From TrEMBL:
<comment type="function">
    <text>Involved in efficient integration of the N-module into mitochondrial respiratory chain complex I.</text>
</comment>
<dbReference type="Pfam" id="PF05347">
    <property type="entry name" value="Complex1_LYR"/>
</dbReference>
<protein>
    <recommendedName>
        <fullName>LYR motif-containing protein 2</fullName>
    </recommendedName>
</protein>
<comment type="similarity">
    <text>Belongs to the complex I LYR family.</text>
</comment>
<keyword id="KW-0809">Transit peptide</keyword>
<dbReference type="InterPro" id="IPR045293">
    <property type="entry name" value="Complex1_LYR_LYRM2"/>
</dbReference>
<keyword id="KW-0496">Mitochondrion</keyword>
<dbReference type="InterPro" id="IPR008011">
    <property type="entry name" value="Complex1_LYR_dom"/>
</dbReference>
<feature type="domain" description="Complex 1 LYR protein">
    <location>
        <begin position="21"/>
        <end position="77"/>
    </location>
</feature>
<dbReference type="GO" id="GO:0005739">
    <property type="term" value="C:mitochondrion"/>
</dbReference>
Amino acid sequence: MTVSRLPSAALSLKQFLHRQNVLGIYRNMLRTIRRVPDEADRKFLRDWAREEFHRNKNVTHEDAIRMMITQASNHLAELQKSLALAHS
C-alpha cells in the first residue's frame, strides 16, 4: 500500500479549479471597482465585494459554489457595463 505524499488538506482538481475561478473573479472585481470615479462609491463597492467573498469562503457545497460563481460573474459584468456606459 502506497502512502500519499499530498497533505490531507490538498484540494481536489475540481476544488482547485473553482478556487482559481473565484480568485480570478475577485481580482477582476477589485480591478473594475478601481475604475469607479466616485471615492465613496468605490469604497462602498470594495467593502461590499470583500465582505461577500469573505462571508462565502468556507462554502463547500458544489451547487452553491457554482451558483455564487455565476452571481459574482453577473455582478462583475453589470458593473463593467455600467462603467462603460458612464464613460461613453
